[in-house]
Amino acid sequence: MSPLMVWGFTFLAVYLVGMLVIGWFASKSASKGMLEHGLGGRSMHPLLIAFSYIASSTSASIYMGEPAMAYHIGWPAFWVTIAIIPGMVIPALLLTSRLRKYSLRLDTMTIPSYLGERYGSDAVRVILALVIVIFYTFPLMAQYKGASILFESILGIPSTVGLVLFTLIVGFYVAVGGFRAVVWTDAIQAIPMLIFSAVLIGVCYVWVGGLSGLNAQLQQIDPTLMGVFDAEVFTPAGVIGSYIFWFIVFISNPYLSIRFMAIRDTGKRSMGTFLIATLLMATLINSNYFIGLVGRVALPGLADADYATIQMAINFLPAFIAAFMMIGIVSAMMSTIDSILLVVGTAVSEDIYRRTINKAAPDKLVLLITRLTIIAVTLVVFGLSIAKPPEFLFIIMNIGLSGVGIAVASPLLVGLFWDKASKAGALASIVVGVCLYSYLILFTPTNFWVTVGIGAVTGLVVMIAVSAVTAPPSDEILDKLKS
To answer: How many of the other CB atoms lie within 10 Å of CB of 258?
Structure first.
């Protein structure tokens, strides 16, 4: 067994046992009821929320898929970095206080339930819950592909064996530990993620001779790698679409925005802590595109560029450091998976079962359904990942996130700032936005970012137009929001 594999197994064993322990301790609080299991009792420290927010937003895509895109198209891929850093901070600043306050006044603990109460509509709640269950399968599969690549490259074990272990551990600590386990594991997982980014970006920068050395070599390989735009993905229209995604669609995803409902308070000190920590961590982690650019120079001709980051770590770092770096990528995958699984579990148990089918259901039954749903979804995604792993991490990840984000964005954002936003407007926005986006993705060759932009903007226009000519929410709902 090579030194890389020895260290890899050692670090992975310690890490996974740690996740199990956290899940077990968190289960004591999570078992108290759905508010604790779903939102940690709305008592989470802003620094913990910041770490969890960044860790959950950072997936296998940021360490594998997005450097792979930079490997293929060069500097135009950096448009995502330019957009995502302010896109993580500015919308959070605008949304956190209102979303926490309004969700508390309406006595809701999930995004679909909040929007269902905000618009007085069971249909809004149920449709959004179904959209979450369907579309979040895609990013979960993307994380599983990332895990299989990692287990094969570092540990040399068959991907199926690694994914079985991965599935069992993530499913356990999310099911039993709930939101508190997710946030604490995210916070711990963020540490190796940040270390991984800082070390490998720094090593790559030195190896390639800084920006001048990198640019000179990219110019020799292919001058188009030095462009501002590229012909397919980051066209001028694609760049506009990417900004719409990162500023509106991405932040609206419930697996992220639910954190704004869980923070313990939104005072100046808490929000300052949250936003500064978010800005610093987002800047570092979203600079991983640089690794993909250096990979194009160091590893020409890779058959699958999703392997570039891991291969760079193996080539450039001592075995024990490369193995530790692996934990950063595992953390990125697990921190996204656990957040999505929790949202899917509560969508089924809280949004569909308790608020639609059995309104008198006790917390213990709803909690049981949440846990069973998490286990079931974990097993389904495992089976799909084994049967047909996705080809491109970046694309499969963002297809799922965009579907949910487009459905949620207009009802959420407009409803937070405009009293006249109506049930009819919300329903029309969800149906038109998601259907149009799905049609463009499935049946046209439209640029992915342009597709997202068209879906989101169309949903927003429909939301405002229909709300302007239909009945606003009842006085009872508006009084609750203003109380």
So the answer is: 24
In this structure, the number of other CB atoms found within 10 A of the CB of residue 41 comes to 17
User: Which residues make beta-bridge pairs with 44?
Assistant: 263
- What is the spatial distance between Cα 427 and Cα 124, in angstroms, rounded to a whole number? 6
Report whether 127 contacts 404 (CB < 8 A). no
> Distance between CA 34 and CA 38 in Å, rounded?
6
What is the average pLDDT score of the chain?
86
Angle separating helix axes 122-135 and 319-346, nearest 10 degrees: 150
How far out from the chain centre does Cα 319 lie? 30
What value does the mean pLDDT take over residues 436-453?
91
- In whole angstroms, give the CA distance from residue 64 to residue 323: 16
* Helix (H/G/I), strand (E/B), else coil: 268: helix
Q: Return the amino acid letter for 417.
A: F
Tokens of 167: 């599935």
Report the sign of the C-alpha dihedral through residues 167, 172, 173, 175, in that order: positive
Q: How far is Cα 223 from Cα 240, in angstroms, rounded to an integer?
A: 24
Distance (Å, whole) CA 364 – CA 370: 10
Q: How far apart are CA 225 and CA 399, in angstroms?
A: 25
DSSP at 359:
T
Q: Which residues contact 181 (CB under 8 A, 6 or more apart)?
A: 22, 23, 26, 27, 30, 173, 174, 338
Are the CB atoms for 404 and 249 separated by under 8 Å? no
Name residues whose C-beta falls within 8 Å of residue 185's C-beta, 6 or more positions apart in sequence.
19, 22, 23, 173, 177, 334, 335, 338
Tell me the three state secondary structure of residue 263: strand
Q: What's the distance, CA 443 to chain centroid?
A: 25
- Among 147-156, 274-283, 312-321, 445-454, the minimum mean pLDDT is found in 147-156
Percent of the chain with pLDDT over 70: 94
